[in-house]
């Protein structure tokens, strides 16, 4: 191989070498980190909520008429919603999954009198539903049982009820009760300090409403119904339908609720799919933006290499002609430029790998991003190497076509 | 002279159209990317109350749990909202020029005309200080006074959109609006007002539209309401609404207006003393940690600027850097390719400064063209962002503003001239003798 002469020639033209290498280095750093961010966002957006996302909608109402009977209206609403064609089940709820709004609570496996260090503690979301909650959410119970009607208590402004049982997500159950949660007592502050509740069921998965939360699968369902606890007159429902009947049921629900009681405003009918779309919009947009950056960057870098190498070829036409005249084959000429490109890009890759990890470190510090997996930089290096070879192919072919005759000609 | 340089540059640029197009595209893409992300960041980080930034101050008292800070990720941070007890005490103390406390909730609007269906309106339950502090522009009327606050008088200030909807834009001062079965007297109507970000109340969404109705805060207390955007407690709140009012639960935003920096220091000292007094009552278990931030400091502390927006700006500038390096390389290639021509021209008498000016003109043209095309890319980029981020803050903010457009052009030109410096300098180093000899 003619590595030495190529290296010598390169060293005579340091500027070109540095310019290409720098481009390659920055490109590598950006591409690796962007791909990393993109894959993470895709993971995040595709996480299952635990609910039957595609067949669920939510609707809420706010009464304004004097003497508005919230309790009676809720009962009528639920009966009407459950009777609608296509509806599987309906429940009241305090929070809507994926909506970024809800009740956060601290949970523990022991009461407050036990020193904090000797308890297991975790934060999580509270969902308050009636005994139809699990079915209306479309959750899968993996252990234990569903709520029954007698367990449901009412929360009002003055009385936060006395829940005795809960159903919790497996993720939170594993955290607080590593030896099995079923039948254990969960402590929270939901109805006064040290509200003690028995874990009667565990669902496979249930996300908190806050999708950017660190521990997104920490959720507990309390069998409670809020009747004017915070907003007099307001109620919210989650309804699950048979596949394909959601939109029709949603329209029917809005109409029906409006008829049941005219002294209120029925609002925000929305499918969970739509809520999911809005909630993750930023993340999806970010992946598109980063994807665009990657493509544009690779294009620019590739074209830049084409430009500079074309120039090198033009400058070396006489030299190439001479080499051809004294016996070099076309293949040798092309190989010269290809090998040269490998060396230049390789130089860039060395700087680029350092930059990649430095950039990642910076992102870790400022944006709480995890550490880049080790294979990103090598894979990225192979990618930019291929890009370099692709870019140099055209100019190298042109060089290979130089006729030996030009060597004998003075320009 | 310059016209001649321009003509020379055009001839030279036309000679190698592909290379020229490549350079212009590189600059344009770089400018487009950076300006798109900069525009969003610029608007996200703007401060609608910059005109009295020193005077408007956010009050934050650390009333949180002795055992765990309000924000685990940043234990030095005080809660951003306040308790009813504290806002009441501070409002009554009247130790600042102006003070305001508020929280958002909703009321059902029942319009008089049949044409408009009843609807829910976001209402800001606020004390009268809101109007003198944030100075929203009044089209008709004015805010209310302390006595309306004290008496929970049913008065309302309408936003211009709501006034258009309910009263067809007419002067509605003195007329009444039916909210939750009660009549409220309109005392003021605002002109169009869209502070961006919504600095006075960021926790409900920093880029939301402002509320369209303002009523005395005492009405909200009478109706036993809490905030619809954020309520936090660290311990049991006691029985009933009165229990919540007496508890350490926070849901009030509070701001004051001070004269200047010195006055702010005085008020801060007053707050610290207040907390020490309260400690005697067994409240405020944590060390004294009160904040009295300016609007801009508060926006920073609340992380109003999204992380993605910042990341995008960094990426875009790295991208722009690559584009510039690219341009340096291409210009270098181009100018070095003209070594024989340069040699000849030097030989027939062109001085180095002349040549320098000529070649720099060429880079300048590339820069201007790249900048103009880059502006096009910027508007395309913003259009794409508006579409991608529909319904999110970024989607609202992705509008080209002329200051940014101007700076885009200036940056493109400056960057390209800078990128052109080295290649031009190299070109001027050509020795006429060697070049002529090889001809």
Topology:
The complex is a heterodimer of chains A (411) and B (439).
Chain A: H1 3-11, H2 14-46, E1 56-63, H3 70-83, E2 87-92, E3 103-108, E4 121-129, H4 133-137, E5 141-144, E6 153-155, E7 165-169, H5 170-176, E8 185-188, E9 195-203, E10 219-226, E11 234-241, H6 246-260, E12 264-271, H7 272-279, H8 281-315, H9 317-325, H10 330-367, H11 376-400, H12 405-408
Parallel strand pairs in A: 4-10, 6-10, 7-9
Antiparallel strand pairs in A: 1-11, 1-12, 2-11, 3-4, 5-9, 7-10, 8-9
Helix pairs in contact in A: 1-10, 2-8, 2-10, 2-11, 3-6, 8-11, 10-11
Chain B: H1 2-15, H2 17-44, E1 56-60, E2 82-83, H3 84-93, E3 98-109, E4 119-126, H4 130-134, E5 138-141, H5 146-151, E6 155-158, H6 160-167, E7 176-179, E8 182-190, E9 213-216, H7 217-222, H8 240-246, E10 250-257, H9 261-280, E11 291-294, H10 295-301, H11 307-337, H12 339-347, H13 352-388, H14 393-397, H15 402-428, H16 432-438
Parallel strand pairs in B: 4-9, 6-8
Antiparallel strand pairs in B: 1-10, 1-11, 2-10, 3-4, 3-10, 5-8, 6-9, 7-8
Find the structural class of chain B using helix and strand composition. alpha+beta
> How many helical elements of chain A?
12
Could you tell me how far the N terminus lies from the C terminus of chain A, measured between alpha carbons in angstroms? 31 Å
Average of the residue pLDDT scores of chain A: 90
Number of domains of chain B: 2
Order of helices and strands of chain B: HHEEHEEHEHEHEEEHHEHEHHHHHHH
C-alpha-based Rg of chain B, rounded: 31 Å
Query: Main sheet of chain B?
Result: 11 strands, mixed
Low-confidence stretches of chain B: none
- Give the topology string of chain A: H per helix, E per strand: HHEHEEEHEEEHEEEEHEHHHHHH
How much of the sequence of chain B is in beta strands?
5-15%
Secondary-structure-based class of chain A equals: alpha+beta
Average predicted local confidence, pLDDT of chain B: 88
